[in-house]
Amino acid sequence: VIGLLLLNVAVLGVGASLLWSVRGWRYWTDLMRLGGLAYLLGLSALVVLLTTGVAVGVPFGWPLLIGGGIGLSLIAIIVGRTARVPRPTLRPPGWRISQPPPLVLPFALCIVVYFAMLFRSLRLTPLFETDAWWVWTVRAKALHYFGDLGGADLVGGGATGYPSYPPGLSLVHAAAFEAMGNLDTVTLHLQHWFLAVGFVAAALGLLAGRVRPAIVYPLALLLLSMPGFADRVGWAMADCLLGYLAATGGLLLYLWLEDRAPWQLLASTVLLGGAMLVKREGTIVVACVLVASFAASIAQRREVWPRLVLAGATTLALAAPWRTYLLVSGVRDEPTEGYLAFVEHGDRAWPSLELVLTTFLDPVWFGFGVVALFAIGLAFLCGSRRLPVFAITFAGASFVSSAFVIWSETAFEITQKPSLNPILRMTLVTTLVLAPLVPLLLEASWRAGSHVSRSPG
Amino acid sequence: VLAVSAAAVLGLVGFVDAVGDFGARADRLARLSAEDRAYGFVQSPELWPPRDIVDDVRTAIPESGEFRVEFGPDWRVGQMRWTNALTAGFLRFHLLPRRQSPTAEWVLCFACDESKLGGEFSVLSESPDGLRFGRIAR
Predict the structure, then answer these.
(1) Of A133, A145, A225, the CB nearest to B15
(2) Under DSSP, is residue A422 helix (H, G, I), strand (E, B) or coil?
(3) Do A118 and B38 touch (CB under 8 A)?
(4) In Å, how far are A138, B21, B95, B119 from B100, measured between CA atoms?
(5) pLDDT tens digit string along B40-65?
(6) A211 Cβ under 8 Å from any chain B Cβ
(7) Do B14 and A133 touch (CB under 8 A)?
(8) Which end of chain B is more exposed for a tag (fewer CB within 10 A), N or C?
């Protein structure tokens, strides 16, 4: 556990260096607010770096792990110094830890208790996840033993090889094995606890000051408590990590549309690049985020779109070494019956879309889907445009693309049964990406409502 | 206000359920031995070959060795759609760095036809339900 803690502190250090070089901060207390973002940024950058290393044949191990982390930090510090980013001081004059409003305190405490109980549960959880044996953790073991993804019998094919799955989570697991000093597949689940804490901290940090705590904390608790999330948060599988990176990258991209701070676009690009290296669906989710950004900025297209195109191209470039590795290895990455299977199976189109929509509104999300759609509609009614357009475009693109995946992959039966169709895990990613947008939507409506009620006449 | 209130109520109700589930799961898992947890035994026992056999396999096959997994047509027929593939995947994971090879002399035979293994099969360990582990003498 101490090894895992040190690994994650090191990841935070790498991310903090990167964030300082592109954003800077006047006070170290700012880093407390942005610590979660720094952690996910460091993780994503390391995933990109390690994937590139493995793809070009650099053996995985401590030298790559430590060298990569130190190298990224050094480059970030040199870039920051060259750009004359000011050194931070400890805290602003008169700073003190702010007391949360009394209404918020119970929700904040519930979140703390939630993570404490989750820690206890994950500390004892055996590796029962079949996908972990087939793909994610077996590759991590291969990285530990052989320094590569395991060769033909592990990534090159076979009925259970899933050779085209990106290696992001396997690299995280392999780093955890190195940090623990053994192949403890039970304690490994705690790595997913760190990822969840990092995501919640990142979202709360980015929303702090933009959304009142009375909106953020109840929604954060709802997200954590949804059975669809709570059941899967500790699984040694890649869906949650994909959701965390895509959600934080998507939120930053939206905030960039509002603020136009270059660091937001840079950090978002790295996060979305990492998301593409976590799961194959990462490419689709990132495309949905970008489509939402284009739609939300249509009024400023001359100024914004060229930079969005550049960001999208950079995101693709970050995943290019892995795609090249697959190409060179001759690994096919297409549906069971080929890319054009959907043409022959047109009868699956509507049932697939229906499955996606009903799953989004399923009780397993504890009403989150209804709250999200309500928040989007309310924001529209209150006069907001950019944010609800971003959210509804992402949701729509995500629904259509998820339906298309199910439609064209004939191996998936039209059912929510987890062993026969991944729709629950696909919807989990969509829900996670929408999650930090919902408080922003409600805050926009709240402000509009307050403005109207205070306006004379 | 309506949306936040609904989220707050649902969040608190869900929190109670989630924390209760985490606690119950932790209590249940705490009753397993460390060996059971390391072996991954938590659900779907049909996917896990008997641990004493797998322990014998780990002892017998050197880490640089290879093994193969053979299923007979009558092995747990109809129990679960992916039973054989999942079992083979579990063994591939659990026995690493030993690698699977279709020509390996070490064989885990799940009610398979031993006459088709390509040599004389010496059984080193077996379970009552038909799993036999052994080595092919060529």
Answers:
(1) A225
(2) coil
(3) no
(4) 13, 38, 9, 18
(5) 765 555 566 778 888 899 999 999 99
(6) no
(7) no
(8) C
